Structures
1.
Amino acid sequence: MDRGPGWLYGGVTATMTEPLTAADRCDRCGAQAYVRVVLPVGELLFCAHHSREHAPKFAAMATHVQDETDRLLEEHGAGALR
Ligand SMILES: [Zn+2]
């Protein structure tokens, strides 16, 4: 029975994804980070603004993207995303 390429994604689902905290800061501007982009060589943190600007560039090589921008809406309202 062919189970498909499940082995290929085993490492991805096993990635530890600790919740982002107020101590996690955007690598570009120092604002609170809400998106973590895990790369084979490390990871990058972005605020909501810079995740929209930069995350698409890293999506192709990222092993995991942790997007917590939904939390930004809950905590600060829709105005925080403007
Ligand atoms: Zn930023």
Note: The radius of gyration is 15 Å.
2.
Amino acid sequence: MRYNRRKFIKNTVSGTIGITCTSILQSFARERNLRNNKTLVKKAVAILEDGCSLAIPYWMIDSGKRGPSLVLIAAQHGNEVQGAEVARRFQKLCSEQLIAGKVWLIPMANLPAIRKRRHSFDLGPEENNRLNPHKLHNMQRHWPGNPEGNDTGRIAWSLYQSIFRHCSHVVDLHCWEHVKAAETLVYYDHEPSRIMGDVTTTRFISSSPVPEVKSNTLMLRRLMVEKGNGAITIELSGQYQIQELQVQTGLSSMINIAKRLGMIQGEPELSGKHIERRSDNSHEVVASCSGIFMPGFSEEKGRILVPEDNVIKGQMLGHIINEIDLKKEIVHAPVNGYLWQFGVCHWALCDASLPAQHPYVEAGGRLALIITVEDDFH
Ligand SMILES: [Zn+2]
């Protein structure tokens, strides 16, 4: 009885606040010419192998006008979580500014892996996808899913049936290790995808031709292209974390794509040109000796260097304390360019294991990858 009374008071109070806030927002929307598109929270329900059901929630915003159906899917890999906040902010923006088409936002696609706080839910401590011999629960290997497959395939199937089969454009948001800068991945020979890739705000882009289909199950981006839809992947920088700068990169990319597709008013806003990463403009910087690596300081920025920073030929990238004679071995930038990778990441495991982040490097180990820019190349 007491519980119910408290609950009643709580609901009444919050209900009143809700009404007040809603009316403020509505008048704010009218003043700023903003729309008030309804956001629905819907669920894709998978029936798992043990007969239990699992619901993956998503937002759906409908402008009420004809237009593209744009999907953002985040956290197909459970340790790649930055896109969840991108989806949340984009949902709010679309509720006010979407003028054509529909938007579908899946902030936590692979809920079992997120609950395990790992890339895939069958991985153990200090394991990443590369160490997983069978990759049975790597969601990217399962599209369009299988209602009689393993649990990950069943979740993919429910998402495909509820969302992807209705959509025209897809952004597949991932995160790679924190030593790598954010990058857009695009098929350059597929026009509907290329126009999406053109307007993302990652500094780097990497283009490849549409690969041949060799299996019944595909990566989501490849499957969407097979169906004639536009699709790109964005890799933000850093797993197991959410960084404001990365969220802003994801959000501004989504806004630009929606503008490019005529779903939000205005022209895409770009602060500069993408830097295309290719093998012929990638310069690896390796350790000249074994020892402890100390990253370099950027006087200009007042902090240590990080991925995305520009560097000039001869600039100090850091130093190694040599394990043999304790001499300080300076590491210089061999070219002008931008840091695509910076810092040690042993065995490609630096976001899954502390030893993999250890600053001890062996002679010949990679410390950085610099991408040169043609206009700037001397
Ligand atoms: Zn991923």
Note: The pocket of zinc ion is lined by residues 76-77, 80, 174 (CB under 6 Å).
3.
Amino acid sequence: MQPRLMALEEGKDLAPTVRTYQHRALPLRVLQFFLVFLVLGLGVSVCSMYMIRFFKIPNAAPVVQPTIVPSCFVELDSIQSWIRPPSNLLHIMNDTELFWRASFVPQIKSYPFNRVPKIAFMFLTKGPLPMAPLWERFFKGQEGRYSIYVHAMPSYDANYPPSSVFYRRQIPSQVTEWGRMTMCDAERRLLANALLDISNEWFILLSEACIPLRNFSIVYSYISRSKHSFMGSFDEHGPYGRGRYNEKMAPLVNLTNWRKGPQWFEVNRALAVKIVADVTYYPKFKDFCRPACYVDEHYFQTMLSIETPHLIANRSLTYVDWSRGGAHPATFGKVDIKEEFFKKIFDSKICLYNNQPSSLCYLFARKFAPSALEPLLQLSSEVLGF
Ligand SMILES: *[C@@H]1O[C@H](CO)[C@@H](O)[C@H](O)[C@H]1NC(C)=O
Ligand SMILES: *[C@@H]1O[C@H](CO)[C@@H](O)[C@H](O)[C@H]1NC(C)=O
Ligand SMILES: *[C@@H]1O[C@H](CO)[C@@H](O)[C@H](O)[C@H]1NC(C)=O
Ligand SMILES: *[C@@H]1O[C@H](CO)[C@@H](O)[C@H](O)[C@H]1NC(C)=O
């Protein structure tokens, strides 16, 4: 598992920049907001007092009140303030506060408004998104059916133009090390931020090396009609599976409960809340699954297969090629991108979809090098359908 260790070192280099991102510029904005508020409020009350005295309005209160009430008070009274997604993703909540807020669940199941359920695409990246132009094409014309969240290293300054789907979609982030709990922390942070938008119903974790294999309509209908969430999860014997289990996790997690699976998942809203709200499994995995136990391959996979086995499909939607051997999967570059390459992926497997055999098993694929972008853009409309 050498590549993981290398990446881990890269993570460490960035340590001094921890948590500077969140606090930048925000207190100033809050201060400005309150100042404007104060001046407005004072102005309105002085003005109305003057008017009451001058015109000797007998029953002043009902007449004056509507002009005094500032617009944000009106919003608090309306359902809109509860269903509108946050306008700015850069909040100042820490993880404890964020996870608590994100774990709110309505107890009445039918929504008192027309809710179009959205898919949250959550990009866990180091920095840039080399496949952004392909994703832009994928999302084109689908506004209102998706939202995007990006967790990059805190030191990375994203610079997308306002016309981009990635513009201002960065969430407050922290340094993340591959194979360690900080990786699961980042995944939970992405889920929690996405949960703040009540219209997000499905949550997909992706990396900068992922691409979509199908167009948005197919992805949306496949995910929205599935009875299961796509968390890859299996019981693997041998050193890289059961070999990573630590007996100190029993009886919460026994050896037969131990699962492994790819990091890249899709979960529905109920499972996303479960993951964000977990305080039971988290400390066990934090203490007893450390390299060479790579916690992002075991924590959610094991927890969900104990808690809600009937809700997960036990397979991932993201294709990856381990056939070249070695400790890490194949990375595809310019020379790999041909029509036959995708035919091979599409024909590679039969899986279960809603308990029926299906040949449509993968909606995404990894890992793609930046050099793959140009040929991908050339054949995407013909081969990938967008
Ligand atoms: C977040 O802030 C609260 C209140 O100050 C504190 O109790 C909590 O420990 C903080 N959490 C983190 C992860 O820093
Ligand atoms: C693990 O084993 C113990 C003892 O047999 C049992 O009480 C416990 O429920 C098991 N845990 C799980 C998650 O099945
Ligand atoms: C996934 O695996 C669990 C056992 O871990 C099983 O109970 C469940 O039925 C499986 N899900 C599907 C859709 O087959
Ligand atoms: C998506 O792809 C399918 C099959 O390739 C095609 O029938 C459909 O028209 C495409 N939808 C859009 C919106 O491009």
Note: Residues 26-55 form the longest helix (30 residues).
4.
Amino acid sequence: MPSISSPNTILIEVQGDVLKRMGKRAEAYVQFASFNPSVLGFVKAGSNVIYVNEIPYSRVAIDSEKSHDYLYVVILHEYLHLIGIADEREVRKITLEMVGRKFGENSNAFSFSKMLTFPEDVKIMENRKYFSHYM
Ligand SMILES: [Zn+2]
């Protein structure tokens, strides 16, 4: 896998872009895991781990450009939750704006980001302390 698509390299890119746009930065780690393939990634409240689902990711992983764009969008989305934006619409809006500005509106990243506005607000709230976010 080319280093450009390494999830932690992309996380550093995301952290820099979010810092520039919002003046906020948080420690975070990306970890691949296998779970329900309709869920692309998630974060848990009180944790700084971004879980990226390796099952849907494996469909784009062979193409290094698509792989980078895919991971950028998923990691950015989850990272925005991690820095404290819980609202799903707000996160999607910021993600789409940032991706459009960075990659352009004809990019894979932008169309991918736009596609993600369909599965509306699939969330599980088990209690106030434990918050599982589904993208
Ligand atoms: Zn989300």
Note: Residues 42 and 133 are 5 Å apart (CA to CA).
